Amino acid sequence: SQSGKSPDLVEAARTARKRGALTLAVTNDPASPLAEAAEVVLPLHAGEEKAVAATKTFLAELAALFQLGAHWSEEATLKEALWPLPEALASASQAEWPRFIEAFTEVEHAFVLSRGLAYASALEAALKLKEAAGLFAEGFSAAEFLHGPVALIEPGFPVLVLAPEDAALPGVREVASSLQEKGALLLWAGAEPGVGEALPAPKAPHPYAAPLVLIQAFYPNAARLALARGQDPDRPRNLRKVTRTL
Amino acid sequence: SQSGKSPDLVEAARTARKRGALTLAVTNDPASPLAEAAEVVLPLHAGEEKAVAATKTFLAELAALFQLGAHWSEEATLKEALWPLPEALASASQAEWPRFIEAFTEVEHAFVLSRGLAYASALEAALKLKEAAGLFAEGFSAAEFLHGPVALIEPGFPVLVLAPEDAALPGVREVASSLQEKGALLLWAGAEPGVGEALPAPKAPHPYAAPLVLIQAFYPNAARLALARGQDPDRPRNLRKVTRTL
Q1: Fewest CB within 10 angstroms: A84, B119, B199, B231, which?
Q2: Do B39 and B22 meet the contact criterion of CB atoms below 8 Å apart?
Q3: Is B23 in contact with B37 (CB distance < 8 Å)?
Q4: Does the global pTM surpass 0.80?
């Protein structure tokens, strides 16, 4: 959590802890109610999150979980990947996707597909397209996509693929190919070759780090898309900084 | 699973069992690979599922899980609710929602909202709107909706609410009210009074049975909507009976 203040999160953490779970809060505010509710806190140190549509918090959360996983698993290749990760992210933040902006400026809706670890990045990308760019986009696992949603695909239907670099890649490529055969407007973001029009992103320092690199490459392009669509990405309609639902 | 044949499901069940999990297959085909892979089988006895977009399998799965939960928990009120459930479902299948069909025939996209146990029915309804009616609809938990997707809501934006009958109801009503204030075209399906235009459904024999009653009331109206939108609900575009992804 960015603010550590959403009552639903705080209540869920309190209830889980009361029932005996070991609770860990990953939050940008180590003095927040969420941090107080949990036994262990991983502070994000992301600095002030000025945007309503939190982006650096999401990236910092993924990075914190990546570090946690690397040290917990004691996987040498994961731990080694931590050092070049900031540089890969800095490089990703420079990715320019003019074709994405051109293709998605006028569309009414879109799918964002990925699979495996990068599935979270597809959901986050779809959420950001909704809140910042005013585009009705739904994120889907490529593994689920043929079970129903594919019925909507017709020539020109916009699909953004965030290409994983791990074992999920061949399955994503296969689904993307079948959508391209149906005439979808297919944009393929990532370092690995794929199908459709390529949106470049740097190679991740470890296949499991691809979800971070992909979403970092996506963010500035989503902001540019928002502007192209006449939206102010810093002021999403109807949204406030802390969402209070319980 | 309806067919018990989707390779991804079968493989997941095999892997889970190999690693020591107790595996239970809920399937309409007790001689299927999925049933063979699992240690325990709950056969659905739903008869032949002729539709590509499986509907009676979904309902029969919910009913099987409801029975399992009732007997496992030994909750008397849950077990008592099993007897009037078929009658409530038969009554729900007669629900007529002309206002839903009228309002959703021309729209480009929609949200389907619910919360708690009925969240699954909102996801299923959105999936069926995609595959049978060719309508880009996304299901959301009302608890999540204010964290981003609400940015898309503008006057006339179509939102279908499946109203729960349990503790989730007040929260859903609150979110629906805030969407109505923003001018959303709000349709409220269920037995409980709500906000927006009412789509009638019979009261469930137990609050936890509301997800079954709601989706049963929805299905025939979704088929009518598909026809109104010029789609054949029995022949969704691009879909086959068994989806093979792995």
Answers
A1: A84
A2: yes
A3: yes
A4: yes
Distance from CA of A211 to the nearest CA of B (A): 20
Domains observed in chain A: 1-43 (no CATH), 86-228 (3.40.50.10490)
Task: Name the residue among A109, A138, A239 with its Cβ closest to that of B108.
Answer: A109
Q: Cα(B154)–Cα(A206) distance, rounded to whole angstroms?
A: 42
CA distance B187 to B172: 13
pLDDT score for B216: 98
pLDDT tens, residue by residue, B11-60: 999 999 999 999 999 999 999 999 999 999 999 999 988 878 889 899 99
Q: B151, A131: Cβ pair inside 8 Å? A: yes
Q: Write out pLDDT tens, residues A31-80.
A: 999 999 999 999 999 998 887 888 989 999 999 999 999 999 999 999 99
Terminal alpha carbon distance of chain B: 15
Listed residue (B84, B83, B138) closest to B108, CA to CA: B138
DSSP A195: S
Q: Which residues in chain A are contacts of B243 at CB distance < 8 A?
A: 146-147
What is the DSSP code (8-state) at residue A204? P
